[in-house]
Recover the amino acids of this structure.
């Protein structure tokens, strides 16, 4: 571990702070690791005082808006901004020519222009910016920008974009390679393939008694966070800028902004504003560079807030997927081989498509032991909306396919679907298809067995009709006619933190001083709090490690080193681990100071309840006395154990840091005649290694379960000819409280010896297993194959 | 115009196209009411207008003259949080918190509506036996929570209902 | 944009006469959505919420005169017995917040094929009262919807009330939505049995450019009930009859594919809803619950 030297900007250099800039979070909650103290931001959130990025305000600020392409694929012949610029109240109109640095950004590959230059590759791509002294003036002025487009036919089919008109390589029948046709014309200079991941393990031609095949597809899901993209950029008058923004990873934003603005990190300072949900959709840039460009150009603070419609165009979505699977097993239900082809439609720009392909491929057959595996996973450029991170990315899609296959195989074998899964379940010591030995507990079988033992909800008695409990609800579409109940199971595993050789470290700075005779701790990280409760976890770890009560959470900003991304279920593991390391360093210094004041041996001393105590519990002195007038501050980075890139030909390698495991049982009532649904119950068992905060863990499981269920039964961005047909909450439906059933949850704690406190990342796994369980329940109720999600009423009625 | 918000009369100069939500947020600095969809489809802007739950994004401010607007900012009293606010904290009724002011105002309105015998969507179909879980779900169905904290919201409101 | 805020009916009508392009606004649940997303920028808005005649209902010669600005919540609460079909439809509108604000007048003004009130109004033989400075006229519901989002009100007229006869028989309303709350209908069906006149009335929503009645189905069912003496005998409704009624209702639809559902599904669901609804209504009739 090294102590990083991060340049910090003195607060005095910041002349102006917006209303709504985050303050230090403090509360009088108590409780360390393993308890569930109240959140430090809880009271602010229930009183409406907590400021989100859309609540930021400066009196002299301007409002920025974005002009976006109406076409999914077109050449820009000319842009005429004169009329817009002449509009009274308009201060600036900017286009690609005004990007001060390199006109490019991107999370993994730098392939997307900040403002479209020459070509637009998706509907909604940013073309120009307007700043005005009123948002309505800016909006109306943007309409006056004349863009001359030469419209091209969009490329919208992922397989066709690769020239794979047939399924690729299924067994001995490689895809027919055709001449690159119009439908496969290159959208980017290097072609339409973002990544092809190959896994080759064992012999794909091994004979099996029983073989089942299926083709599956998953629609495009939206994160639909309730707080739309927004932020405020404040120029510092010296060529630099402060950006207050809702995001998931301040430092990766900073890197991309610096490139686009041609500035250095000390000139581009980011502070995390209040985040109204994220779920992956804030990992990429939205208004960041645009706001900074307008602010630097005008010399005034510029606020940008997307509305709901723009939000549907303003962030990446979950990749739609087309998948073909073939499972072979012995008569007794032992898996012999799995072959599969997975196509992820990445849309117009890469975003995190390479990682999605990595997850989808390496974990593409689920938590099962299979000796022979062939996987081909592709990430593809098309002119559809760009897709990237969303909770459980890559794995959510494949789980629908591999779990449907397991049910299909069970039916073919006449086996109970849980028995089939248990027979093939991974356990500690199992080897994954990419050749990684699972080196911590992997309780796949236990999750399933526990689910099976959980009591089922009561069957409706049929005596009194209560519309609230029926599919369709008070819309009065059934009084019980056609209603059948189905029960479905699914299990999954998901990698935690970044994989394939990426060192996504986190940094924490912990400071302690004596304040009015009591130790007071300030914890400072750049790790984004997006609602998951990381700020609570940071406090808990400080309390446990330093034996103190009062812990203040410093605003999240780039004055401290990277916290890495709030994604991949990684923050409690990575930033929690960094806070733990920083606390340990602070503790060492407290004990060093204490040695000046006592002759007692301190090598085994601990910090408990504000005191330095011996192993037997005897109080040696108070922490405050040990510190005296000193201010102790330590900064540490936490790096997870290294992983490897996988072999490009065989897909073998130690790719992932850790796995988390979850399983769901869904009970669904289906009006089989109308295709309407009521999810009656969604039970979950998940291994979390160690629950640092049990309430927060359960909250993550509930939320993830609801989002997975949403994809199974209602959520889809409908894209036709490259255009989004339903960019509103009127037609993009997410579950209401009425659609969200009771959720019995069991949390297991099998410690991972490689992780801080033995914990496992929590947030994503339940998003992955809930949807397939719901789909399985609907299949059981209807007897239909239902190979596409979201399952729509017409899939059930056949109309 | 004059707008009465949380019992205080406020003077405002507004374009007559201004929604109540924008008037609250951008002219009065009351940022607690949130803009989630601008469509009446998420409930994050729920306020009480003359005691009734209303999506502030669908009301023109100019139509609110002479009416009483209650927002999240006016809920906590000198003795601390309103019981519904306290219950949301205790039962983890939120994560990101963006929907929370709307959820809480909707819940306060819902509890008052129930108290006064106002109907839910099932009144007349089912005679609700108090604020059971299905009844609370039905009556809170106009407020989306993307974090999926519905279980906590339900627990919070069940708790408050059982105490009142 | 002009903003007109009359406090009496006379003022309101005068304002509408002077500003025929003014869009009346009551609950705002339709108009504001259009305005917020810049889909529609009317030259003027006419706030009708302060005109008391519009926001009250009363009995007039045995019929309900429902002010166009009465909220759905109040219809559910106060008119469930007198206007059961409309109350059922009102329950499915939006959310509690929307029902607190939204009005039948707004639904009629927008004349969207997906408006929840329309099938119930059609089935109940409702009449729409239109007023202008030139006088008052009444348009039957089935003559009110002229095209997609077009209705029979002239530019100088306000929709002032809906006049409905309390039912002599059972009414039903069913709606298909792909979520169990806060959803726009994929298809909707309203049904009223009128034993006093021995007629059947229907309304179908979201399955044609306008809300409409399924005339052939109505006539078919009324004739079958008559010829089999079922109105008097109150015997069970033959399953085959319910099914055929459903098929005939379906035949009245002319839907399109859109993001909310396919045309084929809309038609299919219409048949199922009609079959189920007539079965429920007949059961109510037999047990006299609906009379």
């Amino acid at each position: 571990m090294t102590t990083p030297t991060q340049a910090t900007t003195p607060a005095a250099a910041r002349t102006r702070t917006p209303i709504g800039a985050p303050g230090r979070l403090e509360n009088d909650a108590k409780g360390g690791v393993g308890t569930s103290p109240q959140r430090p931001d809880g009271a602010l959130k229930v009183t409406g005082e907590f400021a989100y990025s859309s609540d930021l305000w400066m009196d002299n600020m301007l409002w920025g808006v974005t002009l976006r392409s109406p076409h999914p694929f077109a050449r820009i012949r000319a842009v005429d901004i004169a009329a817009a610029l002449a509009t009274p109240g308009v201060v600036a109109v900017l286009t690609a020519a005004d990007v001060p640095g390199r006109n490019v950004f991107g999370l993994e590959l730098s392939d997307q222009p900040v403002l479209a230059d020459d070509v637009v590759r998706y509907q909604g791509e940013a073309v120009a910016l307007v700043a005005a002294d009123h948002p309505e003036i800016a909006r109306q002025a943007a309409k006056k920008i004349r863009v001359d487009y030469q419209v091209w036919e969009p490329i919208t089919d992922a397989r066709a974009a690769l020239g794979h008109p047939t399924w690729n390589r299924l067994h001995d029948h490689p895809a027919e390679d055709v001449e690159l046709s119009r439908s496969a014309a290159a959208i980017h200079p290097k072609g339409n393939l973002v990544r092809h991941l190959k896994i080759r393990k064992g012999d794909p031609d091994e004979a099996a008694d029983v073989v089942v095949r299926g083709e599956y597809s998953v629609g495009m899901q939206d994160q639909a966070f309730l707080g739309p993209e927004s932020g405020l950029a404040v120029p510092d008058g010296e060529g630099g800028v402060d950006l207050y923004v809702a995001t998931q990873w301040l430092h990766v934003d900073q890197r991309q902004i610096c490139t686009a603005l041609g500035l250095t990190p000390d000139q581009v300072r980011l502070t995390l504003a209040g985040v109204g949900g994220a779920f992956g959709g804030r990992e990429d840039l939205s208004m960041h560079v645009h706001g900074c460009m307008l602010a630097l150009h005008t010399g005034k603070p510029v606020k940008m807030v997307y509305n709901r419609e723009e939000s549907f165009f303003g962030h990446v979505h979950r990749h739609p997927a087309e998948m073909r699977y073939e499972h072979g097993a012995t008569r007794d239900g032992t898996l012999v081989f799995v072959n599969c082809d997975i196509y992820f439609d990445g849309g117009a720009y890469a975003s995190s498509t390479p990682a999605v392909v990595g997850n989808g491929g390496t974990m593409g057959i689920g938590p099962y032991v299979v000796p022979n595996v062939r996987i081909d996973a592709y990430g593809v450029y098309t002119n559809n909306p760009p897709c990237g991170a969303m909770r459980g990315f890559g794995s959510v899609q494949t789980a629908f396919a591999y779990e449907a296959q397991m049910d299909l195989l069970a039916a073919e074998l006449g086996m109970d679907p849980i028995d089939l899964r248990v027979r093939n379940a991974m356990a500690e010591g199992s080897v994954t298809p990419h050749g990684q030995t699972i080196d911590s507990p992997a309780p796949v079988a236990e999750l399933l067995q526990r689910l099976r033992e959980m009591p089922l909800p009561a069957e409706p008695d049929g005596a009194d009709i209560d519309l609230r409990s029926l599919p369709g609800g008070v819309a009065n579409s059934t009084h019980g006619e056609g209603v059948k109940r189905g029960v479905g199971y699914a299990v999954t595993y998901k990698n935690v933190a970044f994989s394939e050789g990426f060192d996504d470290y986190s940094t924490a700075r912990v400071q302690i001083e004596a304040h009015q005779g009591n130790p007071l701790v300030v914890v400072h990280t750049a790790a984004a709090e997006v609602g998951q409760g990381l700020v609570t976890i940071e406090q808990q770890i400080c309390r446990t490690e330093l034996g103190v009560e009062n812990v203040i959470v410093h605003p999240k900003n780039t004055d401290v080193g990277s916290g890495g991304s709030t994604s991949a279920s990684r923050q409690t593991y990575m930033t929690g681990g960094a806070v733990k390391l920083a606390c340990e360093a602070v503790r060492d210094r407290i004990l060093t100071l204490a040695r000046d004041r006592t002759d007692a041996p301190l090598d085994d001393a601990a910090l408990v309840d504000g005191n330095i105590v011996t192993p037997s519990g005897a109080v040696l002195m108070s922490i405050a006395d040990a510190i005296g007038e000193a201010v102790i501050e330590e900064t540490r980075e936490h790096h997870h154990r290294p992983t490897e890139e996988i072999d490009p030909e065989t897909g073998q390698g130690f790719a992932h840091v850790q796995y988390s495991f979850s399983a769901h049982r869904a009970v669904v009532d289906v009006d089989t005649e109308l295709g309407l649904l009521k999810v009656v119950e969604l039970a979950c068992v998940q291994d979390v290694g160690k629950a640092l905060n049990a309430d927060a863990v359960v909250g993550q499981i509930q939320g993830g379960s609801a989002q997975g269920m949403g994809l199974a039964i209602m959520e889809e961005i409908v894209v036709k000819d490259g255009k989004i047909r339903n960019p509103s909450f009127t037609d993009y439906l997410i579950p209401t409280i009425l659609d969200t059933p009771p959720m019995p949850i069991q949390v297991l704690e099998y410690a991972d010896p490689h992780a801080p406190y033995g914990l496992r990342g929590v947030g994503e796994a339940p998003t992955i297993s809930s949807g397939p369980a719901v789909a399985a329940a609907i299949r059981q109720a209807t007897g239909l194959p239902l190979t596409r999600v979201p399952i729509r009423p017409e899939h059930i009625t056949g109309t | 115009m004059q707008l009465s918000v949380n019992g205080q009369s406020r003077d405002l100069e507004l374009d007559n196209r201004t929604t109540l939500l924008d008037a609250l947020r951008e002219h009065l600095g009351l940022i607690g009411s949130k803009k989630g969809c601008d469509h009446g489809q998420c409930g994050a802007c729920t306020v009480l207008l003359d005691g009734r739950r209303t999506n502030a994004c669908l009301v023109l401010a100019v139509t609110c003259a002479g009416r009483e607007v209650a927002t999240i900012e006016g809920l906590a009293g000198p003795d601390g949080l309103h019981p519904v606010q306290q219950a949301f904290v205790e039962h983890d009724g939120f994560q990101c918190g963006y929907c929370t002011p709307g959820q809480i105002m909707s819940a306060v309105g819902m509890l008052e509506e129930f108290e006064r015998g106002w109907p839910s969507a099932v009144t007349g179909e089912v005679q609700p036996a108090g604020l059971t879980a299905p009844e609370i779900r039905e009556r809170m169905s106009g407020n989306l929570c993307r974090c999926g904290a519905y279980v906590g919201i339900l627990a919070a409101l069940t708790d408050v209902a059982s105490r009142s | 944009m002009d903003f007109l805020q009359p406090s009496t009916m006379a003022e309101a009508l005068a304002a509408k006469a002077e500003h025929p392009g003014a869009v009346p606004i009551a609950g705002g649940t339709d108009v504001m959505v259009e305005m917020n997303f810049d889909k529609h920028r009317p030259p003027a808005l006419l706030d009708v919420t302060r005109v008391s005649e519009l926001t009250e209902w009363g009995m007039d010669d045995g019929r309900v005169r429902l002010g166009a600005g009465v909220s759905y919540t109040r219809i559910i609460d106060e008119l469930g017995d007198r206007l059961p079909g409309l109350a059922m439809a009102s329950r499915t509108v939006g959310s509690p917040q929307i029902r607190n604000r939204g009005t039948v007048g707004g639904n009629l003004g927008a004349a969207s094929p997906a408006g929840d009130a329309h099938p119930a109004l059609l089935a109940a033989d409702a009449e729409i009262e239109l007023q202008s400075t030139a006088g008052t006229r009444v348009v039957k519901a089935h003559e009110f919807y002229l095209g997609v989002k077009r209705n029979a009100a002239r530019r100088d007229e306000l929709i002032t009330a809906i006049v409905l006869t309390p039912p002599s028989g059972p009414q039903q309303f069913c709606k298909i939505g792909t979520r169990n709350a806060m959803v726009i209908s994929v298809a909707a069906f309203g049904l009223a049995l009128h034993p006093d006149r021995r007629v059947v009335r229907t309304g179908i929503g979201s399955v044609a450019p306008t809300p409409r009645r399924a005339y052939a189905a109505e006539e078919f069912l009324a004739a079958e009930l008559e010829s089999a003496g079922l109105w008097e005998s109150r015997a069970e409704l033959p399953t085959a009859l319910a099914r055929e009624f459903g098929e005939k209702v379906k035949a009245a639809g002319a839907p399109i594919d859109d993001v909310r559902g396919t045309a084929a599904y809309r038609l299919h669901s219409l048949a199922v809803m009609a079959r189920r609804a007539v079965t429920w209504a007949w059961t109510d009739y037999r047990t006299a619950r609906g009379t």
